[in-house]
Amino acid sequence: VVDWRQHLSASEPWPCMQVLRPRKLCWTPQRKTLREIKMSIEKGIAFNVNNYQELHRVASVIAEVGTAHAHVGIRVNPQVGAGTIQAMSTATATSKIGIAMHDVSVSDLVELFRDRAWLRRLHCHGGSQGCSLELMTSGVRRTVDLALTINEELFRRQINVIDIGGGLPVHFDSEEVALTYQQYAAALRATVPEAFDGTFDTSITE
Question: Within 10 Å of residue 170's Cβ, how many Cβ atoms?
Answer without folding.
Answer: 15
